[in-house]
Amino acid sequence: MSAPPRPSNRPPRRDTPQRGQGQWALGYREPLNPNERMKKDSDGLEVRQRILDIYSKTGFDGIDPGDLRGRMRWMGLYTQRAQGIPGGKTAVLEPEELEDSYFMMRARIDGGQLTSDALRVLGGISTEFGRDVADVTDRQNVQYHWIRIEDVPEIWRRLESVGLSTMEACGDVPRVMLGCPLAGILEDEVLDATDVIAATVEKYVGSPEFSNLPRKWKTSMSGCVDHCTEPEIDDVAFVGVRNEAGEAGYDLWVGGGLSTNPMFAQRVGVFVRPDQVTDVWAACTAVFRDYGYRRQRNRARIKFLMADWGPERFRQVLQDEYLHEALPDGPAPAPAKHDQRDHVGVSRQKDGLNAVGFALRTGRISGSLLTTIAGLADEYGQGRVRTTTQQKMVILDVPDERVEELVAALAEHDLQVRPSAFRRGTMACTGLEFCKLAIVETKQHAQDLYAELEKRLPDFDTPIGINVNGCPNSCARFQTADIGFKGSMVRDANGEMVEGFQVHLGGHLGVEATFGRKFRGHKVTKAETADYCERVLRGFQERRTPGESFAHYVSRAEEAWLL
């Protein structure tokens, strides 16, 4: 099995209904929108040298607009939102009117794997260059704000000194590759995907072969029995499975994604051995590169191609045109063992030590606290730390006799190993504070919301996901939450336009996966979210059947119960 070839310039086939979608494989290589023109003019990877040689010296005002609002994403950099611009202006103002002269910077952490030294560097960068603000994202990255272009070369130098980078953390490229934070740690995993993630990252991240994809490309590779990387909503996912002979490998899923057209990934139906993963991943990525729809930006994700093709045709093209060999049929993986996928709490490692997972404040943290966590990982463990896909963190290798000491030490910094259901289940995107796309503020509001619900419903102990999103793009996955809030402007009781949310209820992954229900555009103002959650959750407590989940309750609930 070999790496996929570069696309040919063969003439378009006249018999296909998709020939007008800007697909390279059909001969349509001319740029069809401004994003494609920007990428053709200069590969996004080339901006790194301009940052080092030019922009870090000229400052913000010297940055070429095509680099500033396009190619710099290939190096993990977005301009952040200027302070004080209300959400009602988001769709009205031009990008240059919304942006500040500072950057959001994303450091990619493939597989969520960190050493204490790496975490200390991450923390120090936040403290020294980012006003001591950092976010642990729901894709296992660490995200900074307030970054000056003049400081980027030094930040890169520090990250690279501990094996990290911002390379392709954003842009139309292979983004961070998700992995189980407890890969290789827990006894019951199907298999450990650490090595296949590392091999794939090493070979292809930063390669010109995949530096111009139609849009972002989200990958997960995991043998976790809890499906903690949420493969249902990734562009391409390798999900741990055992075939009929008992051999451990991966089931291939393609075409998941959220935003304004949410779709679940589809099983391709093949069994992928561990030594095939990197080549199969590259072949899937090449299919997206060559056949992905480039004409319209809002249809340039693999989910749209997969919806049109179906898994059978995708498999045929994958095998015939890229792998040049057939993959064996494979079974579906077992359902997720646990409904909660965040690895919060104390878990026994297969070597007899313990993994201690803890909840942050909706992913928001300081660089100083990241540095403190690095110290705790050295003091109580062996310096190994992990990030999760639920904006949480885990310290590994803690002996039995030191677990409770670590739990108490974390609690001193409001890092909860045994959080309330509300603290544990609440996530939030970056929101209006820094994001140019956002309509409402999210981080602080989500923290205030779970704190208020803890007061109003102190005995509520059912797992509940409350995801707060600042816009329709679903960075915080509002469609798959029990209670999903999508930011929008809403009229309050006085008829004034204020920050608020459209409500999505009963989203669920795993068995009988479904996206949250909407009710005639039902919206609540920001001030009403705690009252709304309390009302709906009290109704759930009163009407639920024994052992019933909130998502199942919503699926059978009368509409009046949920408004």
Write structural notes for this entry.
The protein has helices at 34-41, 47-58, 65-68, 95-98, 116-129, 152-161, 194-204, 277-291, 302-323, 367-380, 403-411, 421-425, 443-456, 529-543, 550-556; strands spanning 77-81, 99-107, 113-115, 134-136, 142-147, 174-178, 217-222, 236-242, 248-254, 266-272, 345-348, 354-359, 364-365, 384-387, 392-398, 426-428, 466-469, 483-491, 497-505, 523-525. It has 563 residues and is an alpha+beta fold. The chain has a domain at 424-561: Sulfite Reductase Hemoprotein, domain 1 (2-Layer Sandwich), CATH 3.30.413.10. It has a five-stranded antiparallel beta sheet with strand order 1-2-5-4-13. Strands 3-14-15-12-11 form a five-stranded antiparallel beta sheet. Helix 7 (194-204) packs across helix 8. It is globular, with a radius of gyration of 23 Å. The relative contact order is 0.10.
N/C terminus separation: 55 Å
Side-by-side strand order of the widest sheet = 1-2-5-4-13
CATH architectural label of the domain at 424-561: 2-Layer Sandwich
Question: Largest sheet, described in full?
Answer: 5 strands, antiparallel
**Proportion of residues in β-strands:** 15-25%
The CATH homologous superfamily name of the domain at 424-561 equals Sulfite Reductase Hemoprotein, domain 1
Subunit organisation of the chains: single chain
Helix content: 25-40%
Number of strands: 20
Q: Helices and strands: which structural class?
A: alpha+beta
